[in-house]
Every structure is written in structure tokens, then in C-alpha cells.
Amino acid sequence: MSGRPFLQIPGPTLVPERVTRAMSQSIIDHRGPKFAALVHECLAGLKGVFQSEKGQIVVYPGSGTGAWEACLVNTLSPGDRVLACVNGHFSTGFARTAAAYGIEVDRLDFPYGAGVSAEQVEQRLSEDTAHQLRAVLVVHNETSTGVTSNVAAIRAALDRARHPALLLVDVVSSLASIDFRVDEWGVDVALTGPQKGLMLPPGLAILAVSDKALHAGEKARCPRAYWDWAPVLERNKRGEFPYTPATSLLFGLRESLAMLNEEGLPNVFKRHARLGEACRRAVGALGLRLLCQKPAEYSNTLTAVLMPAGFDSDAYIAHAWKVLELSLGVGLSEVKGKVFRIGHLGGLNELDLLGGLAGVELTLKSFGVNLRLGAGLAAAEEYLLETIPSR
Ligand SMILES: Cc1ncc(COP(=O)(O)O)c(C=O)c1O
Q1: Stated pTM of the model
Q2: What is the tens place of the pLDDT at every residue in 375-390?
Q3: Does the beta carbon of 61 lie inside 6 Å of ligand 1?
Q4: Which of the following CATH numbers is that of domain 6-12+264-386: 3.30.450.90, 3.40.50.10280, 3.90.1150.10, 3.30.70.20?
């Protein structure tokens, strides 16, 4: 296929040229001075992206799933109770990982398409007068449903309930795309991977950790060796790791952090909000519905679209690939076959989005869905035209 690939899934995202070039340099000695400088730059840059001056950053070769595990084993012990807010495929996975370590998981369930209700979190915490719950688990942006939960409100719920539980937040598909503030929102562990807002290939597990979480770590008894953050933090002080690190990804990370810094985080958030809204308008103009129920919870990094009745989304996604080599996200777990997901995050611009939306229209039409070609594109373009930022 000529032209660029249309990887319109909600991560991995396309890697910008600058990042690819940075990653293609020769590997350096991971115990040498050049490497130490690279580590210090990456850790400082990540603090900025997590909006955390107070926290510590921990980076492992791994993935978002590994980051769940690192977060849990370093803060909790088998037999501890946690409140897991579950509103989709990934929040289910976070809760299951805790259960796999013998942690007692109290689930607070919400339907696919809904966000986490801070009021319900407050109620559950208020009922726990003995403070048995050690942590609250939340996924900021549920990538399976296109729903962003209000973490600031959840923090306020913990405070109102005067509950000392740790706040552990998955920001895999929101960091560096949707505003997320570790210090201001009192988040104890925020965890992510590199392949979404950070615009890198997959291969890292990245955490921002509060002092409170570090102290919890001293008492935590979950078995851990590779994921133990204590030796990583210790060696990081000297710009080293206790194992051979993913040097190329760190080269890429330094470059992607520089790009985010040049654009400015507030502008990065605005760009995602604008592209997200343009995508939603396109979907609406095509007569399709979103899985996310409340406008205040619409995700600015992806849109999960309900497949019209009588059509299977897995078959449609296979069709979109066959016709145009357009990659769209599948429906996961409870919404398998029922939704397709359009990713609009990372190093994306207006034309990238419009190209993807044109592909969605064309392939839906050729799949047999009744729609007017160009209706979605026109709605997206009109919105983009009304909101052109001064460059
Ligand atoms: C919100 C969320 N959490 C966790 C994960 C798991 O990350 P990984 O696939 O990198 O292990 C994903 C992956 O898409 C995700 O979107």
C-alpha cells in the first residue's frame, strides 16, 4: 500500500518522524555518563507531563499491563482490601490483576459507557468506617468505551469521606492528551505506557509515585522482584537501572517529551479536545451513536461508536482493513462486535483526523450502512473551521 498507514486505533499511535529518528541512533553504554544524562532528562520531562513536582517517576521496560502490576505489588499486601471502580475492559483488567495477588477486591461497577461516579465512591468509603480499604483503583480514560472519569471529583470524594486509601489511577490512554494532575489531585500512583499520548512504540511501563505510596511500599508484602521500585529509584539517582534498560525507547522518549514541551501541555490538551469534538460531530452527522452516555465524560482521545443494528463491528473492522488498510479499534469484552473505536490521540493533526474519518465513511458505506457520503466530513470540517487556532 502506498502512502502512510492509517493506524486509527486508540494506541499504539503513529510515531512522529522526529521520534523515529531519535530512536535510530546507536545504542550507548547504559552505565556511562551519556546514558545518565538521558535518564535524568527523561525523568524530569515525565514529571512535567504528569504535572508532578513532588512525585517520583519509575520507568521499566514493559507495558501498561506491567504498570498495573508494578503499581499494585509495590503498594499492597495479599489480604488487603481495595475498592476497584470498574466501567469497562481495562478497569476490569486492573481489578483482576489485584485479585491475582491475593488482594481482596470490592468492585464498584458501572455500565460500559458510564464514568465512575464520585458520589458512589464517597458512599462506599464512608461506609468503611474501619478504614479497611487500602486503595481506590480507577481508570481515568476507559479506552474500551471512550469515557473519561473525573479524577479530581474522586479525590474530593476521598477527602470528604476522610478516608486514607491510596488513589491508584491508570492514565494509559489519557496522559499527555487529556489534562491530568498528579499533585493537585492527590494521586498516589499514576501509571501509563508510552504508546499513546507519548507517541512512542510500545515497550515501557511508566509510573508517577507519591510519598504516601512510597511509604506504603515499605510495608507492602506482595511478592516482587523485577517490579520492585525501590532498587530502580535507588539506581536512578545515579542515572542507572538495576537491569539493561530500553535505551532506544528512552532516546525516543526524550524527543517526544521535547515535542510536547515545544507545543506546551495546555495546547496539547486543546488539540486533543478539538479533534475529539470534530470526530464526535462527524459520527453524529452520520446518524451514528456514541457508547459514552454523558457529554461531560466524552473522551478526547478516542470515540467508541455503536454499530447500527444488524451489523457486526468485528466484521466491519475487518472490512475497513481489507478495503482501505484502515485500522480501527475493536469492541472489547461486553461490547465485542457492538462498537468500533476511532483513535484520535498522539501526534495527530486535522488532516490526519479527516483522512481517517473519510475512511470510516467510505468503508461503512461499502459495508452496507445507510449513510450520506461526506456528511460526517462536512460536520467535522465545519467545526474545525470555526475553531482554527492561530498558528
Ligand atoms: C486504559 C488502559 N489500561 C491498560 C492498558 C494495557 O496496556 P498494555 O496493552 O500496554 O499492556 C491499556 C491498553 O490499551 C489501556 O488502554
Answers
A1: 0.98
A2: 999 999 999 999 998 7
A3: no
A4: 3.90.1150.10
